[in-house]
């Protein structure tokens, strides 16, 4: 009879789990590439490009790292299922017990590997995914019918609006009420198609109602003269000037909520910048805590995968285990989404709404592991 030492078992279980992880990763990667490429081809088919296949490939590759990070929880869940189903069917748990080693060894090893992978993802993969997604959005903007540009930085909020007669360069100091409906200390530069100065609007406040912008206490400076609102016939009150903009307030907030374009390393600085401009950046705070909790989530997926593999006397075929895993993964996804929604509605602290599901999963899974080990 062969003698099994802990080092040999650790090496064996590590190799088997990494093999399962790579197998599941390749499956999810293939699906991501297929789905994303089809989506990009559908998007680009009406753009009349000569190199549509090449452009769709570039956009697909740029978007895929973000997709993989979003699917990482499912990748590790199914990897754990495959790993534990294999060692159960090969009766390798009994081999561990005969070696005088705890039954938790084959659980501990993939848990540690998953936690380390989670750290590597947030430290090294998120900067790559955010940079590639920024490239993706910049390329998509070239083919988009929306030519407006919106940026928020330490100098304020900047909008470049493409109009039929030229451009409007809009700068606002900050927003109010966290909803972009009120902009403070606003300057609007009206330029022609050659970027030549036509006039400038200065206003203490702009109130936005969808695409209708109303300037309060405004002053207009033209190329040769400065005009006060009460000397201009705008068919409105003396200190109020209204104009239509192609920038829809209902879509404005979306420009600042694509949190996947921000690297983990830049999140705190970005949150501070957005807060200084009157925007709470709650979505970015949620994403920051989701990144911090990712190693624990991946560890929790390994613990969960033992619930209906090692924790059952009855054995099923592999596809049945994967079916159960899919249902469980969907339930975990909606539990996490529900908790975050409660946090965004201010009924729970944001950090608590992110961390409570993973904490609950780890606690319940640990209780189940204790029960398994006592058998």
Protein architecture, described:
The protein is α+β, with helices and mostly antiparallel strands. The chain has two domains: 6-143 and 280-373, no CATH class; 149-246. Helix content is 56%, strand content 17%. It has ten helices and eight strands. Strands 1, 2, 3, 4, 5, 6, 7 and 8 form an eight-stranded antiparallel β-sheet that branches. The two termini are 25 Å apart.
Report mean pLDDT, rounded to a whole number: 81
Q: Beta fraction of the residues?
A: 15-25%
For the secondary structure, the number of strands is 8
Q: State Rg.
A: 28 Å
| Number of structural domains | 2
How far the N terminus sits from the C terminus, by CA atoms, comes to 25 Å
Coarse morphology: elongated
Number of helices: 10
Q: Which structural class do the helices and strands define?
A: alpha+beta
User: Could you describe the largest sheet, including whether it forms a barrel?
Assistant: 8 strands, antiparallel
Percent helix, as a range, is 55-70%
Order of helices and strands: HHHHHEEEEEEEEHHHHH
Ranges with pLDDT <50 over ≥5 residues? 225-238
Short description:
This protein is 56% helix and 17% strand. It is an alpha+beta fold and 375 residues long. It has two domains: 6-143 and 280-373, no CATH class; 149-246.
Secondary structure layout:
Blueprint: H1 6-44, H2 52-70, H3 72-89, H4 92-98, H5 105-142, E1 149-153, E2 156-162, E3 166-176, E4 182-192, E5 197-209, E6 212-222, E7 226-227, E8 240-244, H6 249-252, H7 267-276, H8 282-305, H9 318-344, H10 350-373
Antiparallel strand pairs: 1-2, 2-3, 3-4, 4-5, 5-6, 6-7, 6-8
């Amino acid at each position: 009879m062969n003698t099994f030492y802990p080092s040999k078992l650790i090496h064996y279980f590590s190799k088997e789990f990494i093999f399962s992880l790579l197998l599941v990763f390749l499956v999810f990667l293939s699906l991501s590439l297929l789905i994303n490429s089809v989506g990009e081809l559908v998007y680009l088919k009406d753009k009349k490009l000569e190199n549509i296949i090449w452009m769709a490939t570039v956009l697909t590759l740029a978007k895929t790292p973000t997709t993989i990070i979003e699917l990482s929880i499912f990748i590790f869940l199914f990897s754990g299922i495959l790993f534990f189903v294999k060692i159960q069917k090969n009766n390798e748990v009994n081999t561990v017990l005969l070696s005088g080693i705890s039954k938790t060894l084959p659980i501990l090893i993939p848990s540690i590997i998953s936690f380390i992978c989670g750290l590597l993802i947030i430290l090294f993969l998120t900067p790559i995914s955010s940079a590639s997604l920024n490239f993706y959005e910049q390329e998509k903007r070239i083919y988009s019918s929306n030519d407006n540009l919106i940026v928020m930085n330490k100098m304020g909020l900047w909008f470049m609006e493409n109009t039929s007669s030229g451009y409007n360069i809009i700068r606002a100091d900050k927003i109010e009420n966290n909803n972009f409906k009120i902009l403070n200390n606003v300057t609007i530069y009206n330029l022609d198609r050659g970027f030549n100065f036509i006039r400038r609007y200065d206003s203490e406040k702009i109130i936005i109602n969808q695409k209708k912008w109303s300037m309060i206490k405004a002053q207009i400076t033209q190329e040769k003269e400065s005009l006060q609102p009460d000397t201009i016939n705008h068919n409105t009150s003396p200190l109020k000037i209204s104009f239509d903009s192609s920038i829809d307030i209902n879509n404005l907030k979306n420009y600042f909520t694509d949190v996947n374009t921000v690297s983990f390393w830049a999140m705190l600085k970005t949150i501070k910048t957005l807060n200084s401009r009157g925007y709470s950046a709650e979505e970015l705070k949620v994403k920051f805590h989701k990144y911090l909790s990712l190693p624990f989530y991946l560890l929790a997926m390994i613990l969960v995968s033992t619930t209906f593999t090692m924790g059952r006397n009855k054995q099923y075929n592999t596809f049945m285990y994967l079916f159960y895993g899919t249902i469980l993964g969907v339930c975990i996804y909606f539990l996490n989404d529900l908790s975050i929604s409660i946090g965004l509605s201010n009924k729970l602290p944001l950090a608590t709404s992110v961390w409570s599901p993973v904490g609950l999963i780890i606690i319940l899974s640990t209780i189940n592991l204790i029960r398994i080990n006592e058998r």
